[in-house]
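Service request form, structural biology core

Requester: graduate student, group of Dr. S.
Request type: structure prediction, single chain
Budget code: on file
Notes: please return the result as structure tokens.

Sequence provided:
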Amino acid sequence: MRISVQYSTMIVKNLDESAAFYRDVLGFSEGYHVDLPAARITIMESPGGACVELIESEMFPVGLYSVGTDVDDLDEVLRALREKGCKPLGEIVSTTVGRQVFIQDPNGVRICLIEHSEEYRKKYM
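Core staff response, request fulfilled:
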């Protein structure tokens, strides 16, 4: 079972302003941008490799939304986590980058377990 942290997801008021802060003040670069019907998303890459996912959406309150991870085999990871008493917060869902499900740590922080598609891996990882 492999789980590696890839990024923190933050809901922001103004995506352009937030992306400019991470780019111009902190020295991050834009990894990619996606416009969806209910959200605008930009991945900002730090010089060390970790990323911040910025989402502008009125569907969620501003602030830390989740910690995003990458897993090789989502079904295997969920089986192992269930054996340790960890239950997913919902069902596995398909996304534009693969398949994902959320779990929660003891403090209520959401952790997104993502099995990225091969296409995504080749292009961005």
